[in-house]
């Protein structure tokens, strides 16, 4: 499910405080629906805007998890031409809707989060300079005039987030996308298995079990961060410890290895999180190999 109007209202409040005044360094388009901005300032801040029909969202990225394409897409090249080196002046949205406008000194970038989504770059006097995936009737054309009134209607009430809207949306959508990709691939492979490939069906079940086991480690990084904050509370011999999450203020019970000292337990938590991430990558690779073999067998 794509981001709601209330969630956009909340995230834009955060982006105004974090990004207004920062100068765009580069713009990337990893996929047709995703655009990533990097900045000269802001300690490596990166902004993701995705108009994906199922997972449309907009938030800051916490870390560089994916390699961005070295060669820019045609639309990314156009954005770089007009926006590189320019400061962000503001963020606005439809009062009750999901059309967002990012303002620059001489340009507007419109990001539409409802179907059909897309991007449209225009000068501030309304001349269309380029677009990606953006559809209207009649279709947009470079050089045509574009106008999108953003101040009409009752404003969306910002959604409530316990901490940073960016952090929460990144976590929620990361899990949704991973789950959807896994379920889509699993469904495809199971469909193949039902035609007689019982071996592949057993493989999917095994991969599903491996994924479930690895999910036990999915919180280890967060637990490690909490333990690092309250490091003085850790003692050798503890099988678990209950600490306050600095972000939510809620108590969190964290399993420990009593035979390890605090430093070793902290290292083990981060090691388990790395195992979780690399393990998921291996599962994805195994699914890809199973898919290749399924295609070979299906073609016999």
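^ Assign residues to that structure.
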């Amino acid at each position: 499910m794509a981001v709601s109007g209330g969630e956009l209202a909340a995230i834009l409040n955060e982006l105004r405080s974090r990004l207004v005044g920062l100068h765009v360094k580069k713009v990337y388009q990893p996929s047709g629906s995703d655009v990533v901005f990097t900045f000269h300032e802001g300690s490596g801040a990166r902004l993701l805007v995705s108009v994906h029909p199922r997972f449309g969202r907009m938030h800051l990225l916490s870390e560089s998890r994916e390699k961005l394409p070295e060669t820019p897409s045609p639309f990314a090249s156009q954005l770089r031409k007009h926006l590189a080196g320019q400061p962000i002046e503001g963020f606005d949205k439809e009062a009750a809707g999901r059309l967002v406008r990012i303002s620059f000194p001489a340009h507007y970038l419109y990001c539409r989060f409802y179907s059909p989504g897309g991007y449209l770059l225009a000068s501030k006097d309304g001349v269309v300079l380029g677009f990606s995936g953006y559809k209207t009737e009649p279709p947009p054309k470079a050089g045509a005039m574009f106008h999108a009134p953003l101040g009409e209607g009752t404003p969306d009430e910002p959604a409530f987030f316990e901490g940073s809207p960016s952090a929460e949306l990144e976590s929620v959508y990361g899990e949704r996308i991973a789950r959807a990709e896994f379920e889509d691939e699993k469904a495809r492979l199971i469909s193949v298995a039902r035609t007689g490939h019982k071996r592949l069906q057993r493989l999917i079940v095994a991969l599903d079990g491996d994924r479930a086991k690895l999910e036990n480690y999915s919180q280890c990084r967060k637990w490690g961060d909490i333990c690092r904050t309250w490091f003085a509370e850790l003692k050798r011999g503890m099988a678990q410890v209950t600490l306050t999450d600095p972000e939510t203020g809620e108590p969190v019970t964290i399993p420990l290895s009593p035979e390890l000292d605090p430093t070793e337990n902290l290292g083990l938590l981060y090691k388990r999180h790395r195992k979780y991430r690399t393990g998921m990558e291996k599962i994805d690779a195994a699914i890809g190999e199973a898919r290749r073999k399924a295609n070979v067998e299906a073609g016999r």
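The chain has a mean pLDDT of 84.
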